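Below sits my pick:
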Amino acid sequence: MSKFDFLQQQLSDYQNLQYHQDQQLADKLQQVQVWQKDRMQRTHANFFAKAEHQPMAHYFLNRLYGADDFDELARQIDRFIRNAHKVEKFIPKSALHTGDAGVELAVLAIQLDEQVAKYLLKNYPENTPLDDEMMRLAYLAVDQAEPRFHQMQLLETLGEKLDKYVRSTMVKTAFKLSKGVAYRHEANTIYDFIDDGFKAMEPLDSAQDFIATFTSKEKQIIDAVHTGHPKPFTL
């Protein structure tokens, strides 16, 4: 079994998203993603402001939630799935497991936000600026409590993998040594995606502890939205 089988499924899920063929939906999705990032920055402002937390906060906001270069990452995954016998020679298996978790999270975030974007397009004039009340009603309408809680579980799994692999000198060394080969094979976006997670981990005593603090607050907000709190995003 190829190390890329799981990534193939994630790539397929990503390619099947409707916004690729609908510019209006793509524009609304981008608005939702911008709102999501702004809201997370507001919610976790003090936590993210700590110097040792800033790399992981950047990784969350720019890699796992609406990454600007995800299309390029998807193209590289597609190309190397078709040449898996080459890629498997230079990307360490343990590092790829961490990449799997990150890609799954990124795809899920886009899937969920696309559902919200569809609701907003259907129920509001196209150019209506997003605000907290619109998003609260949208979340309720699309009923994403279960997948959003699952998203938090996946984040916690990512934290476990980061702690397991980044703490291993052998894994870190093998991964760093693979950079030159990865870049020569034009796998730079895949390599950098995984590397950013490793680098974000370095200032932390534990990725799991950081992520547990983040997900605890996010779970409170998810629960508040779906139990009728009038201002869940200000908790």
Observations:
- The chain has 13 helices and no strands.
